[in-house]
# Entry
Amino acid sequence: RVALIDHLVCKLLGGTGDFEATLRCTALCSSANIWALIPYVGGLIAFGFMIVTKIHAFSHAHRFTKGRAAAAAILPMVVSCGIDIVAYIGLIALVFASAGAGGRIR
# Structure
């Protein structure tokens, strides 16, 4: 699923690689999760290593510049976080509207 989303973003940004290349890039980037075993800082190290690895892999697999590869690596995360924020704001608004209506959702 992640590789499919990454591949769509790469194609939207003008990437020349195929889905198999994007799948290999995603698999390579997943190897960074081993750093998450380190207590307290492992998650940050894994996230940073994953981003750097994905940028480097996308730049070679899709013949991107480093800037365009960075956009392809970061854009899916930014869009996903934006969707989550909108959903949470909607949920909070629903809770407050329900509380204001005496607990009844109309």
Q: What stands out?
A: The chain is about 75% helix and 0% strand. The first helix runs from residue 2 to 12.
